[in-house]
Fold this sequence. Notes:
With 348 residues, the chain is mainly beta. The chain has helices at residues 2-7, 249-254, 260-268; strands spanning 12-18, 26-30, 36-42, 48-56, 62-64, 67-77, 84-95, 98-100, 104-110, 120-121, 125-135, 143-151, 164-170, 174-180, 184-186, 190-200, 204-217, 224-237, 273-277, 280-284, 291-298, 308-311, 315-327, 332-342. The protein has three helices and 24 strands. The strands form six sheets. Strands 2, 3, 6, 7, 10, 11 and 12 form a seven-stranded mixed beta sheet that branches. Strands 15, 17, 18, 22, 23 and 24 form a six-stranded mixed beta sheet that branches.
Amino acid sequence: MNYLLGAFKPACNVLITFNDGKNRKQVPFKKENGQTVTVPLFQSQENIAGKITIEPMQGKKIDHNGVKVELLGQIEMYFDRGNFYDFTSLVRELDVPGEIYERKTYAFEFSTVEMPYETYNGVNVRLRYVLKVTINRGYAGSIVEYQDFVVRNYSPPPQINNSIKMEVGIEDCLHIEFEYNKSKYHLKDVIIGKIYFLLVRIKIKNMDLEIRRRESTGSGTNTHVETETLAKFELMDGAPVRVIDFVTFEEVNFLGEVPKAMLLVTLKNTRRGKMSLGGLIIVCSPQLRGESIPIRLFLSPYELTPTHRNINNKFSVKYFLNLVLVDEEDRRYFKQQEITMYRLQETS
């Protein structure tokens, strides 16, 4: 029985280490089994060098037909799981056929490696970089060991970054303009903008700003599209109100003595026209002509990636700002605008 159990034990241990592993930045990486580990971070055109240690189990030797290490950049579609599309493939032969009796260490180096795409884990696709060590043993079955690492590529701020101005509306019922300060954002940026109410003749329940990610995989009739809402930011709860006129300076100061909750409730329950509240003259208009709401949304709390366009003809990842307005009858009015995300070099 012990003999049978021993037959299934690995013939050796394989350890892959990087030369600068102690000083290189480590980042979280989610493996295929769902486990999260920390792995080294690289960027395109860097040297990837290290050591591979092979240690036979006690009392055993390894007969092999050669040892090699590969650096692979791979794309895997989840609806075609197990089939990898290699867009980068580099090989270094480490040893000729022979035998290994005791611990043996091999040095390897891949110089100025072209890694054009970032590591990506999506809904239907993943892009990964991996070191693959193979001990070829022919009929005895090859021994294979993997070591993942992450690639992130950085972009400078764009020279041209135009603002976004758009409108949403229904004739004689709703007319809103919104403006965002730019169309390209880095992953830790802040979205700054403003919403202008030119005409509102509906009862507004709430207004939200959403960040959506759209992942497209495949092509033609085999295209799969997944849309995720990554963030939902409440801009407004109920319709905005404004004070039109104060009779005197003393009555302006009086506003500070009026309980805000009472003031808002009173305004909500007041139809168009004038009303008097302790000498304060207010006009409530359901049209809300000329009102505006500022937008300030920080992106750093959210797990965003750069925009990916037609990566190796396999997939794309795009981001959108989605403005959603809901009336009291739960009808939804929305306007969607694509934005470009990029990774800015972090400063220490």
